Amino acid sequence: QEEKKVTIGVSIPAADHGWTSGVVFHAERVAKLLMSQHPGLNVIVKTSPDPASQANAVQDLETQGIDALVILPSDPDPLVNAIKEVKGKGTFVAIVDRAPSVNDNTVRDLYVAGNNPALGQTAGEYIKATTPDAEVVIIRGLPIPIDQQRQDGFDKGIEGSNVKVLDRQFGNWNRDDAFKVMQDYLTKYPKIDVVWCQDDDMAVGVLQAIDQAKRTDIQYVVAGAGSKDMIKKVMDGDKMIPVDVLYPPAMVGTALEMTVANFYGQVPVRGVYTIDATLVTKDNAKDFYFPDSPF
Amino acid sequence: MSSQTSGAGDGAIVLSARRISKSFNGVQVLFGVDFDLRAGEIHALMGENGAGKSTLVKILSGFEQPTSGDIILDGHSVKLPPNGAAEALGIVIIHQEFNLAEHLTVTESLFLGREVTRFGVLDRKFMRSETRRVLDLLGSHVDENAMISSLSIADKQMVEIAKAISRDARVVFMDEPTAVLSREETNFLFKQVRKLRDQGTSFVFVSHKLDEVMELTDRVTVLRDGQWIKTSPTSILDGESIAQLMVGRELSKLYPAKREPNVDEEIVLSVDAVSTGYVKDVSFEVRKGEILGFSGMIGSGRTELMEAIAGLRSRASGEVVIHGEAVPSGDVHAANRRGLAYMTKDRKSKGLLLNSRMTANLTLQSLENHGKLGYLSPASEAQALERARRRFDIRVRDGNVVAGRMSGGNQQKLLLAKVMETEPEIIIIDEPTRGIDVGTKQQIYHFISALARDGRSIIVVSSEMPEVIGLCTRVAVMREGRIVGMLEGDEISEQEIMRYAAGLKKKAAA
Amino acid sequence: MDTSVNEETRDVRRRSWRDIDLRAVAPFAALILLLILGALVNPNFIGLNNLANVATRSAFIAIIAIGATFVISSGDLDLSVGAMVAFVASLMILFMNSGVIADPALMLTAAVLFAVVAGSLCGLANGLITTVGRIEPFIATLGTMGIYRGLTTWLSQGGAITLKDPALQEIYRPAYFGSILGVPVPIVVILAVTCIAAFILYRTRYGRHVVAVGSNADVARYSGIPVNRVRTIAFVIQGLCVAIAVLLYVPRLGSTSATTGILWELQAITAVVVGGTALKGGAGRVWGTICGAFILELVGNIMLLSNFISEYLIGAIQGTIIIVAMLVQRSLVRKS
Amino acid sequence: MDTSVNEETRDVRRRSWRDIDLRAVAPFAALILLLILGALVNPNFIGLNNLANVATRSAFIAIIAIGATFVISSGDLDLSVGAMVAFVASLMILFMNSGVIADPALMLTAAVLFAVVAGSLCGLANGLITTVGRIEPFIATLGTMGIYRGLTTWLSQGGAITLKDPALQEIYRPAYFGSILGVPVPIVVILAVTCIAAFILYRTRYGRHVVAVGSNADVARYSGIPVNRVRTIAFVIQGLCVAIAVLLYVPRLGSTSATTGILWELQAITAVVVGGTALKGGAGRVWGTICGAFILELVGNIMLLSNFISEYLIGAIQGTIIIVAMLVQRSLVRKS
Ligand SMILES: Nc1ncnc2c1ncn2[C@@H]1O[C@H](COP(=O)(O)OP(=O)(O)OP(=O)(O)O)[C@@H](O)[C@H]1O
Ligand SMILES: Nc1ncnc2c1ncn2[C@@H]1O[C@H](COP(=O)(O)OP(=O)(O)OP(=O)(O)O)[C@@H](O)[C@H]1O
Ligand SMILES: [Mg+2]
Ligand SMILES: [Mg+2]
Fold it and tell me: C136, D326: Cβ pair inside 8 Å?
């Protein structure tokens, strides 16, 4: 077959917690799949631990001569300039998940969005519907914009109900830190109804802390992302994890597929494509269960 | 006092060096030296600074390997194990620059590397009492639980000596053990050394103090410029002839003529009722052009007093006035600015940057004189080095050697030169000739005397009594933190000073 | 004359003993201050439950910091401990998941041994690279930090490694969550490890040598102490301590990932220094270290229990508290 | 005889110069080795474009590491630099966003001055806490690290702080992306900063004092050097260097958040040590530091350009390369 040669660079954050490791997994998986489908296609996946080194990685990808860049920025605003640089050279740019404050076609051709505000909002709405008078403690991630967006979404979700937020503290998207924070919440508040920890990794620590304290007042925990362990719990009808809010790391794969379609398909792909923050319940859980994923 | 009583003359040869040569980085410092040490003798090793005494001693105790030549132990050629492992063969050394870890206690230092254990647990009680015993033998009052870092330099030397004495050794090398000791402590040491000698231990004694060599040793070997010059029984030599063998020329009078300062010369430094933690209520004055001596036993507080005057320590009370201006307590700069400089005797940890070269050390205290606006002129520094090497006869074979690798005496000269570079009006020198050979000593005494004639004032703190007597026009004697006597003119004599220092006589400070 | 000198000497001895005591006591003074502060912030704070929680979860850092006390006393530094925790824990879980031994109890025993050996080997590697390779410990262990963490990431393929066998989990769980005579197991382990470490450091020849090497390596060498061996063994002890921390860590969450133990090296070193051991080497304070680890954990706990601090400012206030705690210590020692 | 001594001296000087040169040259040898490795890995690597890229982006760490060279030479350590970058950059952007000055050029000038002052003050704070407070620099700057980062989080309310005015952005952009006579501005800045630093360290009184204080503070004190002032100024120089790095950082990314500059302190210290400066203090190698920063950046670049390494293993291989690079240096120096 005479297929045209296309090189796509994929820049994603390093696997620094469960969700990002899922991102790495899916990027790799889809890259391999697509390369086997298109012999002319070469996909280079690069991970970086922080915005500055991601900017470097983008530059290095460009040095290698790429036709398209698929980027999941660890922190979007600091990376805008680097992305613009690439885009300025005529390279096709797809941004995944995290949008810079100016997010139009001067920066990118395609935007595949995970919906951060919706992740918060869905969780909030679920709590509002299930336990309208709940007293909630929140464990946040790291102090970066996407975390803030989730918080804002959550507040919007519980608006107009009696749901009361007792506390918000950072758990750094880390199980051990979440364990500590939860332990201290349990000391601090004699009665907690619901925990929203917005991330499946942190939920592991939260559940252990509750278990250890033998507290029965906590009715359930709402996490998010869709890790196989948490989805499994939902599927099995675990009372503590009745639902999970989907924020699939697989979205990077979607973006990659769409980018490839732009080169090999018939129609040019442009614009914004939002992935819903689906509420995973016992009924639909099996659709989102990937036992082979590391996350 | 006689050292000829024992049968030192004909003991069997224990350890000997055959045609030992040594080079550092290609620079040769020993040239085919021969040396014999007999059982039960005290053998002096003499020579100018940098002659290679310490190097020879280190080779014979395994701390350095010779470049060529043989070491014969009990008639067999051996290769001594490195890093003090020769101790197992009965060879120990008191290093010229001591080897103590500041964070350990006296007891811990004494037993370092050969701790006594019972069932794997340190027998701390036994080690403590053993330490006490050895220290008492040496007449040292050092607390066996004290941290090394809290000891004065003389006390550190005592610990170092105790460490060597306490090991069951056949051969003990002592590299200038008495350089910072006063007469009292030296006597204690010699008593122990003689006792051990009579039990068959052999000693090699390196010193620049001729009288001690005459008093203690059985034979003398002289080195000059890394070459063996002569070995002969001490009894057939005298101080003059040893000095001559070392230096290779006749020595003129050691001390320059004293010059009494004019009584109505201005008072440049006045110390009024100064107290620190240990020093109590000390007052004295120094006139322009005067050389004032300070004498006393180990720990009598001289160093502490001088550091308080120089602003290196804060005073609990009292005034220090320089040129009519009071100096704030604990402010080195204020004292420096008014022209006062202090030379420490602790050259290794307070005096020199051991990893820096000569130039960096020499100009460290006087960088303002070598360039403008903070910029340094290498040419000017090089000039200063040239000048200092001439003035103080600093001899190194390798101009780029770091200070820590210079011979002990040459380090001392460099330190002296460093302080003199600041061109001070008032100079406090703690042990001016520590470890300096007789030839250079004379040079330094004349230099000090010339400074005084120039109108500078000098305070000489020294545990070498002849030095204080020969150089100073007034001598203060300290004891337990106080000035107990102030001697002038004919009063200045060894007996008088001793009487005050030992507390047998007391009089109000002048 | 003799008596007067003796009296004076005794006086000095007394003074210097007092000085030493204060220095050792200083971290505890800071700890007490913190406890008072905590009690003011939230009445729940001083509850036995909360304090036990804090002490229990300080176990990882405390035990690692005990090892770090040896390494630091001997004048070195180990930045790889956090990564080592992740690596050893991953290996241990993978071993347990491998199912080579059917009987859970036996398997657990084997896994414990396995972790201990793995930790010691990691420590040995650090020690050899530093001493035989003569590389600054900072760089050597920064390198191995990268290696251990990289290998962990690779083993986990970026995700988590989770203990699968529920039977194993069940019998292993008490190692973290259980208690002996009412005292949580981790606290018992901390105490045991500290006692042993204090014994080694203060009462054995090896401990003496560690301090001597850290204080002045040349002097130690001249005293016939095998300097490199002493340093290497300190690294091995550090590895052992990491392994012990892992033994407590694995039953807690039953899983590890590439982020396990991130920045723990910094916390361990901080605990050591807050406890009064100087980074330059030459003195080790094992009990101070434990106190330091506890202080660190308490500061975080107080922050979380307090109601009036913006969560954005927690880091800033933690920093301030640590500095103030050190100032308190200093002023105590200076007064002496 | 006199002449023979002179001859010897000259001979020795020549030899020992060789020795010294080797020590200073060692990092550069490691650098060259890396360049060769890189060329083997990917032909694009050795292109001028790529190398210029790498050099340009090493600017932040390199400039910060220059400051760290002073602090480390004087025997201290500064762990707060990464947080300081985030803090100073945030302050600077907030200042520019405040719009107190209408004219963009004037505003930029004011902002630059503002950043420089802010950086120096942060450094001064570190210096005073360490020297006047007599706290181990490790702890003192760990504390201020928490404070600076905490304040940044608070300023940004957990989000990002982004430069708003497009006019300002436009005129500021060339400070990172522009070039002078074909050389990218950041490289010019690195060179300028290094030259000035080398001059200060090697040719001025202050530089001498830094080295003296770092190699033996007692000797320095007895030589009448104001030890605390020298140390404090070193911290201020570090703060200044951080400010300069910020001046390059802001135009590049145009925004900061609480994660800006995370772990840069570790990288800066690593650059200094890889460059041949000992962490113990007492010797500074400014050019080595630059070389070290470049080595670190190159290692990352080679990893990125090579396409056969699992990205899970990148950390492990980076660690290995750093250790090997240090071993190469050591063996070079030992051979001399
Ligand atoms: N490790 C070394 N590296 C280089 N040179 C050295 C080293 N050790 C000694 N030297 C040189 O060897 C020569 C002899 O030094 P040594 O210490 O043996 O003299 P010394 O006779 O003990 O003098 P002093 O009376 O001053 O103590 C000196 O020039 C010294 O600089
Ligand atoms: N009996 C004592 N009580 C308290 N401190 C003592 C005693 N003996 C010695 N010291 C300490 O020793 C120091 C005094 O020694 P200093 O060095 O000033 O005396 P020195 O006359 O110069 O003797 P050295 O030759 O030992 O240096 C003081 O710092 C003091 O703390
Ligand atoms: Mg000598
Ligand atoms: Mg003294």
Answer: yes
pLDDT above 70: percentage of residues in chain B: 96
Asked if residues B447 and B467 have their Cβ atoms less than 8 Å apart, the reply is no
- List the structure tokens of B57: 């001693």
Structure tokens at D57: 């982006």
Cα–Cα distance for residue pair B194/D170, rounded to 1 Å: 88
β A220-225/A244-246 pair status: parallel
What pLDDT sits at residue C21?
58
Among D21, D160, D146, residue whose Cα is nearest residue D80: D146
CA distance B106 to B145: 6
Residues lining ligand 2, judged by CB closer than 6 Å? B 152-155, 277-278, 296, 298-304, 463; C 8-9, 12
pLDDT in tens, B436-470: 888 888 888 988 998 888 889 999 999 888 888 98
In chain D, what is the straight-line distance between the N-terminal and C-terminal CA atoms, in Å?
29
First CA to last CA distance, chain C: 29
Cβ neighbours for D166, distance < 8 A, ≥ 6 positions apart = none
The torsion defined by the Cα of A217, A222, A227 and A229, in degrees rounded to 10, comes to: 20
CA of B159 to the centre of ligand 2 (A): 15
Q: Please give, rounded to a whole number of angstroms, the shortest distance from the CA of B268 to a CA of chain C.
A: 35
Rounded to whole angstroms, how far apart are CA atoms B99 and B82? 15
Higher pLDDT, D75 or C10: D75
Per-residue 3-state assignment (H helix, E strand, C coil) for chain A: CCCCCEEEEEEEECCCCHHHHHHHHHHHHHHHHHHHHCCCEEEEEEEECCHHHHHHHHHHHHHCCCCEEEECCCCHHHHHHHHHHHHHCCCEEEEECCCCCCCCCCCCCEEEEECHHHHHHHHHHHHHHHCCCCEEEEEECCCCHHHHHHHHHHHHHHCCCCCEEEEEEECCCCHHHHHHHHHHHHHHCCCCCEEECCCHHHHHHHHHHHHHHCCCCCCEEEEEECCHHHHHHHHCCCCCCCCEEECCCCHHHHHHHHHHHHHHCCCCCCEEEEECCCEECCCCHHHHCCCCCCC
Question: Which ligand has its closest atom nearest to the C-alpha of B302?
Answer: 2
Listed residue (C221, C23, C21, C34) closest to C131, CA to CA: C221
How far is C-alpha B231 from the chain's CA centre?
25
Nearest to A50 among D44, D262, D305 (CB): D262
The pLDDT of residue C145 is 94
Distance B488 CA to ligand 2 centre (A): 25
Residue where the block lists tokens 């107080």? C302
**Chain B neighbors of C12, CB-CB under 8 A:** 143, 146
Q: Which pLDDT belongs to residue C8?
A: 42
In C, minimum Cα distance to A24 occurs at C158
Look at residue A292 in the predicted model and tell me its pLDDT. Answer: 74
Query: Minimal Cα–Cα distance from B370 to chain D, Å?
Result: 9
ipTM of the shown complex? 0.87
Q: Which residues of A touch C245 (CB under 8 A)?
A: none
- The ligand whose atoms approach the alpha carbon of B464 most closely is 2
B190 vs B254, residue with greater confidence: B190
How many other C-beta atoms can be found within 10 angstroms of the C-beta atom of residue B491? 13
Q: Where are the alpha helices (DSSP H) in C74-204?
A: 81-98, 104-131, 137-155, 166-172, 174-177, 185-203
Other Cβ atoms less than 10 A from the Cβ of D113: the count is: 12
Other beta carbons within 10 Å of B184:
16
CA B235, B238, B239, B243 dihedral sign is negative
Instruction: Give the least confident one: B213-227, C267-281, D264-278, D305-319.
Output: D305-319
d(CA C234, CA B328): 47
**Cβ–Cβ of A183/C53 closer than 8 Å?**
yes
- With 0-12 / 13-18 / 19 or more C-beta atoms within 10 angstroms meaning exposed / middle / buried, residue C146 is buried
